[in-house]
Records
---
Amino acid sequence: MSRAPAPVVGGRPVAPFDPHRVRAEFPILSRRVRRGRPLVYLDNAATTQKPLAVIEALDRHWRTSNANVHRGVHLLSQESTTAMEAARGHVARFLGAADPREVVFVRGTTEAVNLVAHAWGRANLRPGDEILLTTMEHHSNIVPWQLVAAQTGAVVRAAPILDDGSLDREGFRRLLSPRTRLVGVAHVSNALGTVNPVRELAQEAHAVGALVLVDGAQAVSHLRVDVRALGVDFYAFSGHKVFGPTGIGALWGRKALLDAMPPWQGGGDMIRTVSFSGSTWADVPARFEAGTPAIAEAIGLGAAVEWLGGLPADAVAAHEADLLEHGTRLLEGVPGLRLVGTAPGKVSVLSFVLEGVHPHDVGTLLDLEGVAVRTGHHCAQPVMDRFGLPATARASLALYNVREDLDALVAALHKVRETFPL
Ligand code: PMP
């Protein structure tokens, strides 16, 4: 079996990372699918698989400590609370946050953006204020702003993107003005793999007095994130895209901003006092965590980021860069295949169209060979419109992928080409 070359970063060899060893920690990756074929899982931008560290953390919690959190005096409730709050600390460290109280547990990126749009947006946006997004945003960083804009009279704008899928920096600057109250930007585009220059965008946004929300859904499993170094105001991500459970994610926000925001959902756990003459709110993060949280999932997320944090980040990044380069080279050899999204420095995502074959047919034929990719608009219809496409096929990588996965993808694509000759 061929191995990726030893990783070298900045001219220096880095701590070894063996993706074949890591694969053994993911039981699902040894599954056989379609007529006994080995699973080739290349749909990581949709969701990632789970390592034993996460599966066992969930199992352990349910077997030994399951109870509701925060209000109980009994042992199991105390254990559950301690484990969930420890997970909050793990997430804070994972993001480089100054204080675990800046981490709000939410269902995922979608809920995090809705939280900011409704809690911050409804309290702060006035008619004529502008929300500046980019054309490459996922629908979850577009639609919540449209809903709040309709309620407040604010206006949603979208910065253009260039032909290679990178952000049009000039276009962004042209749209930025003192009317801009918030800039919402994907750290990494799920449809194109583009990495946006978040730190620079945040500086430009702050210069006009706007806040910055980053959708980190596609970034956290590929880039080292440090919210303070990035200089942003809010950072959102989903647990299931970073080897953790579904139904859990986090919103990080600057403490002073979160402190000043009213709640957006009411219920148990988010109050200080309740009476029929009026209620008062708990401090953050509880203020934004109404109701029983996803306790086991939060603990699983903590386990996921701890597991990821234990891997040699530079070597993992070098491995992923090698995969992307290998995959790009092979895909370019498939007759009639066009890559969509070729921005310099992109990560993880290989979106493409195959001339003469609808992307859904490509996906179905690949599945027959055991190769799992996603086809469609990837919840990024403005990106599809920008490139004049109804859909693309998308292979997306994770650290447990190996060159052989890309070899299998491309072999299957050559078969599709034989079925549908040009
Ligand atoms: N933003 C991006 C860039 C994404 O890729 C996704 C998921 N495809 C989301 C937001 C939404 O994440 P979730 O469905 O987990 O809330």
Note: The chain has two domains: 8-50+312-419, 65-309.
---
Amino acid sequence: MSDTSKPSWATRTLAAQALGHIDAATQAVVPPIHVSTTYIRDPDNQYRTGNIYARPDNETVREAEAIIAMLEGAKVAMVLGSGMSAATAVFLSLAPGDHVVAPEVMYWGLRNWLINEGRHWGLDVELVDTSSLDALRAAVRPGKTRLVWLETPSNPLWTITDIRAAADIAHAAGARLAVDSTVATPLLTRPLALGADIVMHSATKYLNGHSDVIAGALAASQDDDFWKRIKRTRATLGQILGPLETYMLIRGMRTLDLRVRAACANAMELALRLSNHAQVAQVLYPGLPSHPGHDVALRQMTGGFGGMLSIRVRGGEAAAIATAAGVTLWKRATSLGGVESLIEHRASIEGAGSPCPPDLLRLSAGVEEVEDLFADLDRALRAAG
Ligand code: PLP
């Protein structure tokens, strides 16, 4: 019987209080950080707490996982040592020979891993334009494809893929659908509610939000055999996040809602202003009607279009690099999703084989005053033009 006397609090309320857990021993409103690597066995040879050894078992990690499961509307969640370890734990839980479909435009580190190490491990990796449902339909092989991987919005063009339609295509072929939702955050898109089986985050980005923790997360709608296998992969490969970093991640997630709303508002305003800038040839942002994924983004993103945008600089590669060199407030660095705004000449980091145009600057909008952000960028664009 459901407890109707208990109100169902909003996600942002629950996140702000880190689910409101109070430490039973001390009544502390911030739970302790559990650092022990090992746990006492009961005299009758049992382990009734469920804790045996900290490579698989840590209570602080479980706290973070409960928050992530709540944010994603998931049954289960897992915290890992990085976004890459989260993604690769999924792929390494497949069997050699399994066919997987992934996007052409995606986080370059994972694309490179799939092409090099994933294939070396025996995966049959196929990269397609997942924003085209026809291309996706043509790529999946019924009975052979085990996993369709999406990233939406995807690095660095912010390509949008229709999660619901992709889930139907994957499931009809007998494959699972996993979504890297790092850029959308659980605030803007909930892939599991749209039919995905697994959602993945580089928690280094928005979930933590302060550019001071490398972390990853997975969440799933079912605690099935595949999930259990991923959990074993995390345990045996030692991919769990350390308790101190997990504590920082929990602290960061308390303000996820505030930070993401502020970043979305700044990104939208910057996208609009930069669309009219003489030195900017194109603005790539799913919130703009000119973006090819705008209609799908309108349907599947709620509350904003994210804090990430890219611009193509009219003067080409040299002008783009000069613009990045000319800013003083924006920080010239890789990564995204922190409270400080970052700018990056993306092709320089992605290297050969990247679909990133050489004149592209990737912008991670932080939470600073948008007038300051625009003024700094405007000055640098004009000087480089
Ligand atoms: N997925 C996306 C969309 C990313 O931007 C990144 C990192 O930039 C990753 C995954 C990898 O995450 P991490 O750096 O935490 O391993």
Note: The chain has a mean pLDDT of 97.
